[in-house]
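Supplementary Methods. Inverse-folding protocol.

Structures were first reduced to a discrete structure-token string of length 142. This string, shown here, constituted the complete conditioning input.
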């Protein structure tokens, strides 16, 4: 079962430092862009992932094409993708042993979450860290 307990989510967000944000957008009005900017303002290092923008700079970070192209290990992968497009990313996160998979509001993949949990990963689903951080009083690095 994906994590729903507020204390567990708070602890997770206080431990995480580096996040791969899959589905990053260069458009300021897109939720992925807003969340990336918010998380950076809270002290998280965000590595944007989007094959269409790979090699470009987004909010001061170089965009990579996929999880295999990450320049360093990450603590969490956040998915801003349609649910039907999440399986390959979940499988890549499992393969790379990324400790946490966070699926954004509306991104629900029960089978993918179960696979990740069976592999020992923590899964948060249908939630937004931009909402959870202030709601839970998360103390971040910023």
């Amino acid at each position: 079962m994906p994590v729903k307990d507020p204390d567990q989510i708070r602890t997770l967000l206080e431990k995480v430092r580096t996040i791969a944000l899959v589905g990053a957008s260069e458009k300021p009005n897109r939720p992925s862009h807003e969340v990336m900017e918010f998380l950076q303002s809270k002290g998280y290092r965000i590595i944007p992932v989007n094959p269409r923008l790979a090699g470009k700079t987004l909010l001061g970070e170089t965009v990579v094409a996929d999880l295999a192209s990450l320049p360093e290990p990450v603590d969490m992968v956040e998915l801003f993708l349609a649910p039907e497009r999440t399986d390959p990313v979940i499988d890549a996160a499992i393969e790379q042993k990324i400790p946490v998979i966070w699926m954004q509001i509306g991104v629900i993949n029960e089978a993918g979450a179960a696979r990740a949990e069976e592999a020992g990963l923590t899964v948060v689903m249908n939630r937004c860290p931009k909402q959870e951080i202030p709601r839970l009083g998360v103390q971040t690095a910023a």
